[in-house]
Amino acid sequence: MIACVHVTLWSSRVAKFGMLSVLPKYEGFGVGGLLVKAAESYAKDLGCIRMVLDILIPVAGETPSKVQLMEWYTRLNYRFLHELPIEHAVYPEAKFLKMPCLFSVHEKKLLK
What we know:
Blueprint: E1 3-9, E2 14-22, H1 31-45, E3 50-58, H2 64-75, E4 79-85, H3 86-94, E5 101-109
Parallel strand pairs: 2-3
Antiparallel strand pairs: 1-2, 3-5, 4-5
């Protein structure tokens, strides 16, 4: 396996994807973009009109890799919605983080 993505249904009209990962030696070849397109296609096939994603951001500040990631999602037409303290979203897991974090929530309208 060289890459993966996880898609869940939030409602009958909204899907969320996360855990997008590509092995480093395959980065830059369009694999991630293909996975995002596949996730969006899957959501559309289920009748969804919006796709949501969260980016985990350290409270102390964005890292260069997170900035690059948010720019990449912007190029894929994802738009920033809001920030959410991680404790509000996944409270039990928050205690395992090495530092305080929040979610940067982004959304894309899926066109038929």
